[in-house]
């Protein structure tokens, strides 16, 4: 991969990182015990605790936020790993075969860790 391509993908990754951070902040906060992890933010619990449906809705909202947070956190870790690979010279190399990852794949997902041939289907939540 040439220097121009690396700069192009670096800009895409940095932009994606900023967007992910903004999304993460809307539903969570940085874990004070581990700044590399996020945890769900508090759900507004200003509710009538006598209303079981309202309480259940708030717990459901919290669980949904937790699932979304985990997905965003995984994406963030992939972006951070891709940026680190750029620094080490390993960016764009398939983690399974050691071959270059197709530019079309990196265009669609600049944080891709594998080539098209070795990509896994997305995990079902």
Integer-rounded radius of gyration: 19 Å
List the secondary-structure elements in sequence, H or E: HEEHH
Span between termini:
35 Å
Mean of all residue-level pLDDT scores = 86
**Structural class, from helix and strand content?**
mainly alpha
Strand segment tally: 2
> Could you describe the largest sheet, including whether it forms a barrel?
2 strands, antiparallel
Strand order in the sheet with the most strands: 1-2
Q: Please tally the helical runs, counting DSSP H or I stretches of 4 or more residues.
A: 3
* Shape designation: elongated
> Uncertain segments of ≥5 residues (pLDDT<50)?
none
- Bin the helical content: 40-55%
Strand content: 5-15%
Please, could you describe this protein's structure?
The chain has helices at residues 3-27, 52-88, 103-108, and strands spanning 28-31, 34-40. The protein is mainly alpha-helical and 125 residues long. Strands 1-2 form a two-stranded antiparallel ribbon. Strand 1 (28-31) and strand 2 (34-40) form a beta hairpin. Helix 1 runs antiparallel to helix 2 (52-88). The two termini are 35 Å apart.
């Amino acid at each position: 991969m040439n220097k121009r391509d690396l700069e192009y993908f670096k800009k895409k990754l940095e932009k994606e990182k900023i967007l992910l951070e903004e999304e993460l902040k809307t539903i969570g906060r940085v874990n004070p015990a581990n700044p590399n992890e996020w945890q769900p933010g508090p759900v507004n619990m200003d509710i009538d605790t006598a209303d079981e449906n309202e309480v259940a809705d708030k717990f459901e909202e919290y669980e949904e936020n937790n699932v979304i947070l985990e997905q965003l956190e995984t994406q963030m870790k992939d972006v951070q790993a891709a940026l680190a690979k750029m620094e080490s010279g390993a960016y764009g190399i398939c983690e399974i075969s050691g071959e270059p990852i197709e530019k079309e794949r990196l265009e669609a997902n600049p944080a891709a860790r594998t080539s098209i041939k070795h990509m896994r289907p997305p995990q079902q939540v």
